């Protein structure tokens, strides 16, 4: 290593230039950014949620503010608009942030505001998934699973492209955030990601065909009764 031409220091010929590299893009950048931002929030009364380390909550009398962080994407909500605006001004004075306003898209999830609440959908994500997998013009399936369950056979032929199977299965797993109707079928597909067979891939294709017919499905968030109901799925130990 030597000094570049035009920047040679005759008094220090053996010295080299010190590179001032931006933190952005380095492996430790997300951790450092998260640490700096959360320290800032904690000095202003925020505390980490016990259920999600990316969620910080501030309670003051009857005022509540929720601050969700995912790398450099931030979501702020609460029941005190004045405190939220004060917090945003404080953030702008300490960090270089962009504030697009009301939420419409967050981590690939579209948020539509309705007269009764919110509607979460991943329609754009579904269309991109179907396009990447070649299922844009496929025939729709009425159900995510076949009515009859088939036990895994150790002599079944292995699928010739396991990486494709894993990529599609992972994409469907993320889609289940707003499509709880595919959660069970996706879980069964993900159980065979290590050594998928041709039969497993057929099950994955059926699920993609079901998703094609339910593109507009989503998750509504509305005001309602806060009573919690539980349900038991008694399937007799999967005995068909």
UniProtKB/TrEMBL annotation:
Residues 138-158 are annotated as: Disordered. It comes from the Eukaryota. Signal peptide: none annotated. SUPFAM superfamilies: DNA/RNA polymerases (SSF56672). Residues 1-146 form the Reverse transcriptase Ty1/copia-type domain. InterPro entries: DNA/RNA_pol_sf, RVT_2. This is Putative mitochondrial protein. It comes from Dendrobium catenatum.
